Amino acid sequence: MEKDIASNSTPQGANIESIEGGKSEAVDIENKVLSAQTNTSGSLERYINVFSTVNFSFVLQCSWEAAALTFQFSLTNGGPASIVYGSIFAGIGTTLVACSLAEMASMDPTVGAQYRWTAAFAPRYNRFLGLMQGWITVFAWICSCTSNPALVSNVIVSLAVFNNPEYVPKRWHTTLIMCAVTVFPFVGNLWLRRIINPLEALGAVCHVVFFFASIITLAVLAQRSTTAYVFHTLTNDVSGWTNPVVAWGVGLLTVTYPLTGFDGVLHMSDEVKQARTRVPRSMITSVVLNATMQFTFMITVLFTLGDPAIVSAQPLPIIEVYYQATGSKPATNLFVSMLGIIVFISFFNVFASVSRLAWAFSRDHGLPFSRTFAKVNTRMRTPLNALILVACCLCLLALINIGSSAAFNAFISLPALALYISYFFPICFLLLRRLSRSSSQIPWGPFRLGRVGPLVNLGAVCYILLTLIWMPFPTTLPVNGENFNYSGPIVGAFIGWAVADWCVSGRKRFHVPVPWTDG
Q1: What is the pTM of this model?
Q2: 506: which DSSP letter?
Q3: Which of 194, 224, 309, 506 is surrounded by the most beta carbons within 10 Å?
Q4: Per residue in 493-511, is it b (16+ CB within 10 Å) or e — as a string?
Q5: In angstroms, how far apart are the furthest CA atoms of the chain?
Q6: Which residues, 6+ apart, have CB-to-CB distance to 490 below 8 Å?
Q7: CA dihedral 84, 86, 88, 90 (to 10 degrees)
Q8: Distances from the Cα of 147 to the Cαs of 141, 185, 239, 406, 495, in angstroms?
Q9: For residue 64, is pLDDT > 50?
């Protein structure tokens, strides 16, 4: 049986030499990482088998459900052109990104993932860039974690309005629902960890069954849109963005955001059996399947949209799409509720991933109070303190909803922006290393892109850069405090915080176990 890298982070107090300046000696990847096996913080149990590994990413992304619950962004920006051609663009681009990260996962399947690889491949300033990448990745995943309860709460509130038109939702209602929803994955990951595998299986079944049920129902019952509307309509006269290129780019949020998060299984690597082969396979399979399902579902929605003006005016347009097709409130409630349930099941996986990431970053002394958050409960074999940290962060972020009606937009655009930034640097540095004279020292794993590797990495970098351009744009004009897109300033402020942390204490405390170096 293939030998796994069983431990992926530094024991507390370990003295691991950094590779700043690219002057450290080359070391063997497995010996370096396995030297970190003995630690005082406990270890995690490898309980995720091959079937659950694929299910984990497949359900975590739940792309067609997320696109169904957020396609209002594209209806007013770009319209069908953003949805159809944007889905193709996002599917191909995300596959390139997934293949690039999968190649690195095959070399070093580690919970820390992006920050470990950034520190390993960066030509210089390795510890600084590793710490920055760690902060960005942890921040990105905590933000990504907010999108699940935000989507679920939006489904609950929208269905309440749909069934009781007299009900007027308050912002604090949504905040309380988000906090309540967060309790379930916290409890599940703490005391009911063994239910996650069967829960993932149930989520995968629902993910597929209701995909076909939705497509068949809409195709049979709904009024047809014209082919010209679906493939030749670019909407640039609704949101205020009159430039068609800008309108199309802003509308990409609907189709790019749902395909992020495929790296979630990476941050569970310490609990995956035969991680060097199964983690890369899970990532690529998940992206290809979810991209295909998302494209197919969104094409179906466009052909069965009904009156675009009526649909786009709704708080949650997918409710109106199902209702126009079925003419039945119970049927509409069923379909929309299932979207929320699948996103809710996905929340268990997202919550598990971000807690393991925070735990690993703490073990490498990346977070303040690292000794506290790096502990593993020896009885439960779970990073209890990291779970509590994530739950508290989610509840605090949910408070944003009370102060701003643009919070839902932020909960969607912020995770996408931060996650794409976290993907960019390790892929960029791998590409640079690949093209350098030290490329022969890269310890390739079982999955390798070979000669097409540089082209795949370059395509991934270009896709990420093109996507990042549009993420911070506001979705409507004129811009005011209510519709401003806060994702860009928030990410900028957080990067400033990370730099300040490096200057104050991060440069002294942070130790990243770099598994290979320049010769």
Answers
A1: 0.85
A2: I
A3: 506
A4: ebbeebeebbeeebeeebb
A5: 70
A6: 410, 414
A7: -150
A8: 10, 14, 23, 13, 21
A9: yes
> How many C-beta neighbours within 10 Å does residue 88 have?
12
- Does 295 score more than 90 pLDDT? yes
State both tokens at 58.
């497949």
Computed over every residue of the chain, the mean pLDDT equals 83
* Closest-CA residue to 97 (of 332, 402, 431, 333): 431
Cβ contact 261:144 at 8 Å:
yes
- Residues 319, 334 contacting (CB under 8 angstroms): no
- Beta-carbon count within 10 A of 45 CB: 12
Residue with structure tokens 């199902």?
322
pLDDT tens sequence across 65-106 = 999 998 888 888 999 999 999 999 999 999 999 999 999 999
Residue type, 240: G
The DSSP string of 408-451 is HHHHHHHHHHHHHHHHHHHHHHHHHHHTSGGGGG----S---GG
- Helices in 164-270 by DSSP H: which ranges? 171-190, 196-221, 227-232, 244-250, 253-256
User: How far, in Å, CA of 290 to CA of 59, rounded?
Assistant: 9
Helical axes 114-121 vs 407-434, angle rounded to 10°: 30
Q: What is the DSSP code (8-state) at residue 380? A: T
Q: How many CB atoms lie within 10 A of CB 368?
A: 13
pLDDT tens-place string over residues 345-355:
999 888 888 88
Q: What does the alpha-carbon distance between residue 9 and residue 301 come to, in Å, rounded to a whole number?
A: 45
Indicate the fold that domain 20-509 takes in CATH: Amino acid/polyamine transporter I (1.20.1740)
Nearest to 408 by CA among 131, 129, 153, 163: 153
Query: What is the Cβ-side half-sphere exposure of residue 211, based on CA atoms within 13 angstroms?
Result: 25
Closest CA to 181 of 161, 211, 157, 205: 157
Distance CA(193)–CA(12), nearest Å, equals 26
pLDDT tens, position by position, 212-254: 999 999 999 998 999 999 999 998 888 888 899 999 999 998 8
Q: How many helices (H) and strands (E) does the chain have?
A: 23, 0
The Cα–Cα gap between 438 and 39 comes to 32
Q: Are 112 and 8 in contact (CB under 8 A)?
A: yes
Q: If pLDDT is split at 50, 70 and 90, which confidence band does 51 have?
A: low
